[in-house]
UniProtKB/TrEMBL annotation:
This is Prefoldin subunit 1. Belongs to the prefoldin subunit beta family. GO terms for cellular component: cytoplasm; prefoldin complex. The lineage of its organism: Eukaryota, Fungi, Fungi incertae sedis, Mucoromycota, Mucoromycotina. InterPro entries: PFD_beta-like, Prefoldin.
Length: 77
């Protein structure tokens, strides 16, 4: 049975360690993205609830560039 030298074992260990660190960084990136999307979803749900509570004739303004354009509140699902 062939045995690996200490240098070969060390080299394999360093490679595995680098792969592990890279994988951990990717996992952390994905976790951050998930948290961000959850915050966005919660904000969208809160906005939707507020808009649903408005009367259909409520005056609203939509931001367009640096100005606001008047429009009647029309909820589209």
């Amino acid at each position: 049975m062939a045995t690996l030298s200490d240098e070969a074992i060390r080299k394999v260990f360093v490679e595995l360690q680098a792969k592990f660190i890279h994988s951990q960084q990717q996992v952390n990136t994905v976790k951050t993205q998930i948290q961000s999307k959850q915050r966005e979803r919660k904000m969208a749900e809160l906005t939707r609830r507020e808009l649903d509570s408005l009367n259909s004739e409520t005056r609203t303004y939509k931001p367009v560039g640096k100005m606001y354009i008047f429009e009647i509140c029309s909820i589209e699902i």
